[in-house]
Amino acid sequence: MSLVHIPAEEKRRVLEELADVKELFAARNWFPGTSGNLSLRVGEMDGDRFHFAITASGKDKSKRTPEDFLIVDQEGRPAETTGLKPSAETLIHCEIYRLTGCGAVFHVHTVFNNLISEYYGEQGAVPLQGIELIKAFNIWEENAAIAVPVLPNYADISAIAKLVPGVLNEQVPGILLRNHGIYAWGRDTFEAKKHLEAFEFMFETVYRSLLLNK
């Protein structure tokens, strides 16, 4: 265990921010059956060394308790003495932080991101074009087009994490796991939330468009 000392005020701020986001997303039913995970970086990155707070495994995310989160290091190992277990998907968070230097990573399971990731799974990406909310990613071209990567949903999380560097696009702050859920990130909680909400709106739009065009 790589222990770290985090000032009490900084830790309190981080955990309160995460708790507020968790409460908001839980109210939208984005964490069915204890699924999903949220993380927020603590302090600055020092090369490949960094720490972040992440949701503890197996917790009811509709509840707010003192044991909802723990601090881990860049390898996903607990960085404080705790009996809590990090989310099973912590290694994917580690890769996203390492590759992007972002400040927050949010992962949710919704009906629309599951359906869309499965529909486009064989293509390896979800095409999005001409949808207003692409502007949420600071992309302003007329009729802009992006592609959201879709990775296979292996039971071995480390195998998924190894695929992240090969598909990550700095202009598209999100990655889907097929028939599973999305990871969206940003510089802080506000930006990560904005990006996640934009993706979810667009996935629902694409799904409903496919139904209309049948």
Automatic annotation (TrEMBL):
Residues 16-207 form the Class II aldolase/adducin N-terminal domain. It is an enzyme of class 4 (lyase). Its EC number is 4.2.1.109. Zn(2+) binds at H107, H109. Pathway: Amino-acid biosynthesis; L-methionine biosynthesis via salvage pathway; L-methionine from S-methyl-5-thio-alpha-D-ribose 1-phosphate: step 2/6. Binds 1 zinc ion per subunit. Signal peptide: none annotated. SUPFAM superfamilies: AraD/HMP-PK domain-like (SSF53639). Keywords: Amino-acid biosynthesis, Lyase, Metal-binding, Methionine biosynthesis, Zinc. Its cofactor is Zn(2+). The keyword Chaperone does not apply. InterPro entries: Aldolase_II/adducin_N, Aldolase_II/adducin_N_sf, MethylthioRu-1-P_deHdtase_MtnB. It holds the Pfam family Aldolase_II. SMART domains: Aldolase_II. GO terms for molecular function: methylthioribulose 1-phosphate dehydratase activity. It catalyses: 5-(methylsulfanyl)-D-ribulose 1-phosphate = 5-methylsulfanyl-2,3-dioxopentyl phosphate + H2O. It comes from the Bacteria. Catalyzes the dehydration of methylthioribulose-1-phosphate (MTRu-1-P) into 2,3-diketo-5-methylthiopentyl-1-phosphate (DK-MTP-1-P). NCBIfam families: salvage_mtnB. Belongs to the aldolase class II family. MtnB subfamily. This is Methylthioribulose-1-phosphate dehydratase. It comes from Paenibacillus enshidis.
